[in-house]
Design a protein that fits this description.
single chain; alpha+beta; globular; 130 residues
């Protein structure tokens, strides 16, 4: 097991690792819409926050030698499932052609009162087609 941190992803806001590599898999901790440059929450709408979350995940995966097309499982936690379709529209931009397995659920409260938190599991091995 190896701890992995990307400079392009937001620094953890608690006692956890940004990601962990085990074997041929990378487990990316739940990402909220934090701007890695400022440490501030980005956006007010679900679309803006989802965009930031997926960009953070993309950067972490790329820096680890993986990519969004290597993601095998996604866990999405939302503050309000009434915004599901709006989140799904953004999600489809990042996981369009061959979507990974996924679970989405509503959480009573997310860190820093954000609208969305997402964690992923991906294969290592570059961004070529899986």
């Amino acid at each position: 097991m190896k701890i992995f941190n990307s400079e392009r992803g937001p620094k953890p806001i608690g006692p956890y690792s940004q990601a962990v590599i085990s074997g041929n898999l990378i487990f990316v901790s739940g990402q909220i819409p934090i701007d890695p440059a400022t440490g501030n929450i980005c956006g007010f709408s679900i679309e803006q926050q989802a965009e930031r979350v997926f960009e953070n995940i993309k950067a972490i995966l790329e820096d680890a030698g993986s990519g969004l097309n290597r993601v095998v499982m996604v866990t999405v936690m939302m503050a309000n499932l009434n915004e599901y379709q709006r989140m799904n529209n953004i999600y489809a931009k990042y996981f369009g052609e061959i979507p990974p397995a996924r679970v989405v659920f509503q959480a009573a409260r997310l860190p820093k009162d954000v609208k969305i938190e997402v964690s992923v599991i991906a294969e290592l091995g570059g961004t070529e087609e899986a």
